[in-house]
Design goal:
Strand content: under 5%
Shape: globular
Largest sheet: none
Number of helices: 8
Length: 142
């Protein structure tokens, strides 16, 4: 059985195909939580080079959602953009990433993985000490 309550409820669903900015914004405005959870992943994976800034902005809007799982997936969506396009605007994304590392305890494992992917893809050293602290806490609790 999984250690995290959030892992017990995992249901894997295919990501939606996002064909336009309007479709993405429609989901952002009116989507249910499960749609909002998948939106940053779909946008991060599917965005074109010309849409990478829009995708980043959408992920950051989702990073302000009330649901901690949506916020964690928003950071993962940023990681997908970083991996695919070797780009994020550090000045803009860093405060969101740091906030989620500090406050989103239920999904910090997902956020740590996403930040490590961002660091690897972009050559950043973002939040190395907090990440190590979280990993040590996770190791000590097992």
């Amino acid at each position: 059985m999984a250690d995290h309550e959030s892992e017990k409820k995992r249901v894997y669903k295919p990501l939606p195909t996002i064909e336009s900015r309007e479709q993405a914004l429609g989901i952002l405005e009116q989507g249910e939580v499960d749609e909002l959870m998948r939106l940053p992943l779909a946008v991060g994976l599917q965005c074109s080079k010309s849409d990478k800034e829009f995708a980043q902005e959408l992920c950051l809007k989702l990073a302000d959602n009330d649901c901690s799982a949506v916020r964690a997936n928003a950071i993962l969506g940023l990681a997908y953009i970083a991996i695919k396009h070797k780009w994020l605007d550090k000045r803009i994304v860093k405060p969101y990433i740091i906030r989620e590392l500090r406050t989103n305890d239920g999904f910090n494992w997902r956020i740590v993985d996403a930040v490590e992917d961002i660091n690897d893809s972009l050559g950043w050293q973002l939040a190395k000490k907090p990440i190590q602290r979280i990993k040590n806490q996770r190791r000590d609790s097992n």
